[in-house]
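Notes for week 9. Today we move from apo structures to complexes. The key idea is that a small molecule is not decoration. When we ask for a structure prediction with zinc ion present, the ligand SMILES becomes part of the input, just like the chain. The input block below holds both the sequence and the ligand string. Read it once before you look at the output, and try to guess where the molecule might sit.
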Amino acid sequence: MKKRRFAALIRVVLGFVGMFVVLFLESMGISYEKRSETVSLLPPDQVMNVKKSRREKTCLMVYDSGEDNSFHAMEIYDQVLKDMRVPFDSYDVGSEGIKGFDIMLGRYESAVFVIGNYDVFEEKIFDISSWVGEGGRMLLGMTPDKSEYFDYIAGKMGIISSQYDFGEVASFVSDPGFMLGAQQAYVITDPYESSLVVELDDQCKVVAHTAEKNLPLIWQRNYKEGRFVVCNFGYAEKAYRGIFASSYTLLDDIFAYPVINASTYYLDDFPSPVPSGNGEYIMRDYGMGIADFYSSVWWPDVLKLGDKHGIRYTGLIIENYEDKTYGELPPNDSTADYYYFGNMLLNKGGELGFHGYNHQPLCGPDFMYHEDLGYKTWESNEKISEAITELSRFSKSIFPNQEFAVYVPPSDVLSMEGRAILGSSSDIKAIASIYFHGVDEYFQEFTVADDGIVETPRIVSGGIIDDYMTLAAFSELNFHYVSSHFMHPDDLLDEDRGAELGWEKYSKRLDEYMTWLDESSKGQIRNLTGSGMGGAVQRYVNLIPELKYDYNSVTLENQGLIDTAYYFVRANEGVLGNCYGGDLTKLNDTLYLLKVKSPKVVIVRR
Ligand SMILES: [Zn+2]
């Protein structure tokens, strides 16, 4: 009897020891920090260049300011070429005319024509095709119109016949050997007739088409000594830039461009005061109040997804949900939830940043909201500064060893004066707002601003990742090799953000996105926190690459290399072999990820 009781006691003790070990390991976050690397934010003065390219301009972008579509496409390509560090000049046929155009074109190695109506070139159209025949590389960067002069050279780019009416493009499918994420078709929201209906000869290499395969969207065709690439895709939008960037990489036999290589998941409004009471759909699905749901369902599930996909979350602190923007700004004294959630996030290798003293955007008394989201303005710039100082004090009192370097503006709204005050009254070094234009939103490019603040926009959000967002994620993966996602714990209280859907479906969709990213990036994308993303962007903008071709090798000179950096390398001809000064990883038949570790990298061609 005594013995049995003793054995039971031992089991209890062992159980406690086991639990202690699990909790201890969890608090150390041992298995997670090893899995992904850390990229540090650099002092701003270490970033000397912002997307500079070498001085000699080898590419000409040709557009027609008299044509709306051409002008929009020019704006898209302008950023695409800058980000890819293609040194280019721009030529506006609409204002500069075509006199001497042939002589001018002859000075360049490649050209991007973002033109619909090729009749503007008249007889000069033959000079353009002759230039290609002599070795020029021409990208037709947007859907061309069928016209008299276009038809004169259409055969040289492989077009046997074409129609005057455009075909509707409702989906985009890449060849598996071309873009990343080619395992599925991408649906285009609000499709319209936007691509030339063509029959191509068998010398064309089609690398993208619609799901029905009735329309070729991107093809490549060698012509004598040169090459045509046709991007028969008419949607000139920021969300589709990766399609245009990838088209450009088809021009040269081998091409390399810098990429960011980073994936980040932000948790907005986390930690923050947990709402009391019940949420309609949470009660429907789980039969519990909001606070219990957050701690016993939502947060454990979010952590599980993080473990499964090697994610290190970045949480953005909100001190209170009062909307006071004047007078005294009282501190929040209930800090238990912040300790609990915040430390668990940190122990998993995550990071904390700022979202706000409250949820009012940092907009001073002169700011005008164009859209009424119920927000106020602050009584003065001093009050904005006071709010940031209080948030800083509050956060440091709970997490004394943390640096708070990342800021996410409430509802992505931030005024220019708010941004300046933020830089001067906190340690914020990176702002993660939004990639796409909105009404009042502070929208960004991936770059470093003049004041040294790193701009790290977020691209997709929530658990309702719709067709548009999916295509945008696909596009950015191929353009910058980047993914940036954000969500809120209170999405489950808001019908517009997925409350009715329920957490089970919401989290399943989230898991699908994370799985899509793991697969599409071929497991090579770095899982970083918000400041890691900032550090990656700093290294990316500082690079000034120069690619030199030899008979059996290519040399990449990396001016501005800080420690390591990444490139995509596209090999249209042949296969790449040994690499000196970096690590080369094959992502598909023609695309490689290059990790550069030395100012000079040599890749052997096989
Ligand atoms: Zn928020």
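The longest helix spans residues 2-28.
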